[in-house]
Amino acid sequence: MPPPKPVVSLTALTSPPLRPPFGIGIETVWLVQFFQLPPRFTFGNTIGFPDTSSIVTSQLSPEFDPPRVVGVSRPTSDSNINFEAWLPTTATWNGKFLSNGEGGYVGVIGYAGIALYLQRGYATVSTNTGHVSTNPFWAVGHRERAIDYLYRAKHLTTVAAKELIHAFYGKPARHNYFQSCSNGGRQGWLEIQRYPDDFDGLIVGAPWNFQSHSNAGFVWDAQALSAAGAAIPVAKLNNITAAVQAACDGDDGLVDGIVTNPLSCKFNPDTLLCTGAETNSCLTAPQLAALKKIYAGPSNPRTGEKIFPGFAVSSERQWTALVANLTASGLGNGYFANLTFENPSWDYTRFNFDSDMAYADFRVGTLGNAIDPDITAARKRGVKIIQYHGWEDQTLQSAFSPQ
Ligand SMILES: [Ca+2]
Fold first, then answer.
1. 374-385 pLDDT, tens digit each
2. Which residues have their alpha-adjacent CB atom under 5 A from ion ligand 1?
3. pTM for the predicted model, two decimal places
4. Which sequence spans correspond to the domains of the chain?
């Protein structure tokens, strides 16, 4: 790639003060430059970007070759929030801003998303939320970077993008939109609850918005499946779903392999218990106990209080990764070992669903959970929200979404 060509520079752009309890007196410095995308940015091309080896497979015709704004936001001395705004030419701009959101623990800019939105004429932006790794080991000893990931980067990037749009086109966008899922869904709800002026409309998919409790669910499932003899072989998953469908596929009026409302399904898991030799069509007693725990989700052992819903009946056939994860690796480990306890040798088997849950809620949940039911400010502005979540989601527990 040719050396970047600076076109414009905006400095000392101060973000609006963050509202308590999240305000910590932020002064933001923007270092912004325009780069030109390589010519012939076409389908299947592999393009190496400076901060990641992301591969973008998008088709952009020459008239969409956009100014690419590479920025960094440093709200604290330990922060390094990278973002890119891609801006259609004035002739191809549809007059609107559509922000990308970012999944999991982020660590990369969502090039595939912003390429797609750009093609549709939107000015768009994505951020790595302040670190360069999809595994949050970086959070140990870096509290401010954790805060950047948990909520700050998305807001600051949004403020920057809106300023850039105004500067580049000489007027603000007609509408400011956001679309994403999973961790991006969490970002969406955070924006609605804490920064209701940022967006006019949001599409929120499968949100990870009660992040601390959702992650406790992953630990719960791993503890259940790693009990003696409790691992559920992948080969049994289709048969479990078949038994669920036999019980309630027709409840929605159509026997079509889809259980429309798993919450109303009257499926009795005990019918799966092996009565003779174990086969792929039945479960041993320890496997059955694990299955019931996965359906139930975690609860507080002292108070009995429900912590989070489990996974939905009829979603079992999708659980190939879920039943293979006996150590809460991935999202659960990332959250508790790195963001919460900042202890890389954290042991999922010793997680206490009372005291450890309370600590996680206090330490990280208050920053990153997006569960404030008060969205009055967004309502007053007329912010439009569309949310979806698939009942067969095996990564995030769908039953919380309607709540
Ligand atoms: Ca059906």
1. 999 999 999 999
2. 249, 252, 254, 256, 258
3. 0.85
4. 13-173, 212-368
